[in-house]
Amino acid sequence: MDISEENAIIGFDPNKSQISIDRLAEFIQTQITGDLSEVPGLGDFGIKKLKKENISTTFALMGKFLILKEKGVEPIEHCDRFFYWLTSVGITSHKHTITQAIAQKLDISFPGIYESNF
User: Fold this and answer.
1) Residue 8 and residue 95: Cα distance in Å, rounded?
2) pLDDT band per the 50, 70, 90 thresholds, residue 114
3) Cys staple from 100: which of 17, 23, 61, 62, with CB 3.0 to 4.6 Å?
4) Contact, 14 vs 116, CB < 8 A?
5) In the chain, what are the domain boundaries?
6) What is the Cα–Cα distance from 1 to 5, expressed in whole angstroms?
7) Which CATH superfamily is domain 3-109 in?
8) Is the dihedral of CA 10, 15, 16, 19 positive or negative?
9) What confidence tens digit (pLDDT) does each residue in 42-54 have?
10) CA–CA gap between residue 42 and residue 61 (Å, rounded)
11) Contact between residue 114 and residue 65 where contact means Cβ atoms under 8 Å apart
């Protein structure tokens, strides 16, 4: 297996997230405004890609994360699904950060949706 195949198999890894503990705590504790730029790791390029998928608010992005949670889907697989979905819509960087931020924010309302000890 070459490196590109190996990287294609590996999904979300919280250790590859580039968010600081302070920034993550701030995002988790702050009320969501709906502006996609409030999501850690999302910049103009990623926001444009999401808008092409009719994801124009933070609420819609969180909704997409929740849609990917089905009966029997454990937190690791759930985060992988979201990570791969981000990849499929053309988000090329900070996918680990975006996934971690959204998952941990939603874990407040839906305990158990995220596990920090991957």
Assistant:
1) 13
2) confident
3) 17
4) yes
5) 3-109
6) 6
7) Barrier-to-autointegration factor, BAF (1.10.150.40)
8) positive
9) 999 999 999 999 9
10) 11
11) no
**SS3 per residue for the chain:** CCHHHHHHHCCCCHHHCCCCHHHHHHHHHCCCCCCHHHCCCCCHHHHHHHHHCCCCCHHHHHHHHHHCCCCCCCHHHHHHHHHHHHHHCCCCCCHHHHHHHHHHHHHHHCCCCCCCCC
Residues in Cβ contact with 114 at an 8 Å cutoff, skipping those fewer than 6 apart: 75, 79, 103, 104, 106, 107
Is the whole model's pTM more than 0.85, yes or no?
yes
